[in-house]
Model the fold of this input.
Amino acid sequence: MDTRKYRQSETLSTGSAQLKRWVFARHSNPLSAWSRWASTPLIVLPIWKRSTWAGAAVTAWMLLNPIVFRSPRNENAWSTRAMLGEELWSERLRCDKASAINVLSTAAMVVSIVGARRRSAYQALPATAIQMTLTLVFWKLMADFYAKAQYAGQSTR
Done:
């Protein structure tokens, strides 16, 4: 076995794990989590308006949001625990209730985007509301997952 390749991939893996940890640490700030959640309706706006500029702005915001805020001082906020739980949960492929909620949430967003493309408020608005509600359900599951992990002695910090 070529140990140089192994060491290189191990370093890349460690580097990507550190980057993921850094992003989740910052995204666990309640301002990041809640502002990103509240921005969800903005995803369909550029599609509805057929605006490339709005699409670029929304994409930039969604990409930058998880890193523009500082790490929270503590884990008291429910959204903080939800984001930290998601970090732990995402380390392994799972087929569980949270995965099912994630699939349903993604499907709702696809329906919302299709509705925006068709300029159908009757399709886009309820689908966006359903997606946002499912995100909160997912967060609840992740906060619970984090609490169980803390009880079991796992940590993200």
Notes: The two ends are 34 Å apart (CA to CA). Residues 1-12 have pLDDT under 50 and may be disordered. Residues 3-152 form one domain.
